[in-house]
Amino acid sequence: MEINDIFNNFKSNISKIQLFQRAIKANTEKEIKELNEFAINMKKQPKEIQEIGKSLHNLSFKSAIDGNHIFYDFKKISIEENYQSVIFYKNKQYMWLLAEAYEEFEKFIEKVYAFIGFKNNNLWPLVDYGKITLPELNQKDYVWFLERAKNKQGTPQSILSYYRNNLSEIAKVESKNALKINLKLAIILIENLRHIIVHNHGIVENKDDFINNTLKKAGLDNNKKPKQEYIDFIHAFFATDKYDKHIFLLERETNPEIPIDTHINIYEMLIGYLLSYSQILVDNIEKEIGTTCNSYNKT
Fold this sequence. Notes:
With 299 residues, the chain is mainly α. It has helices at residues 3-43, 47-52, 79-119, 134-137, 142-150, 157-166, 170-175, 183-200, 207-217, 228-235, 266-288; strands at 55-62, 69-77, 252-253, 263-264. It has a two-stranded antiparallel sheet with strand order 1-2. Strand 1 and strand 2 (69-77) form a beta hairpin. The radius of gyration is 25 Å and the shape is elongated.
């Protein structure tokens, strides 16, 4: 088994997620176009027809007692409200895809860590082996190492700390790179965004606390006086105004005054950070540890 087998599998999984995102983007654009056309046609109609143009929704469930439908709510939704729903739903889908991508990243770093321990038993801290004798260890296959990696205390940050402390280029590139961002902060931010997405629908209870906790975790709080650029970096992944506690991953227009679609793809930017970090990790392992588990067939 080679390190690039692990990396190629990770990239393949991420590409599948990316294709979902592009399909969502295309479908949303189609929905918005249809809503715009409908709105234009409605404006040409008398007021009583415009009122009928609102979408009506009866919401019900079946009673477990007698099987009859119980209607529990009724919604009358305007074209503008429909438009907002489409945008909110698109953002929600992007958030869940980001969460899925980060979970693939966590699996990737665990597989790489397992690769390192399996390739050379001297490279893992002894505590990661658990209660096992050296003769028993020599008989363990890659799957055993992978299970130990998954159960390593403090993952994923403990594994990332291992890379940072044992691979010479990781810490350097985290802070200084061609992307001109702090990659350590970016990865921790994505981890924290994923937590909020999964556990609180993508809404932070206290945005300042979220920012401070993220910076502290990345070692960038500077005694509660962090650089403004780091604060601004985190702010960029949230909405503004009354929705400023909501994670917002949709495309941002850059030149709305011209009739050409120019935008910053916030979602793909975050995915790019995961891929860039992974590439750095693989390059370092190739240089410093090697690429192949020569003893992989020992099972």
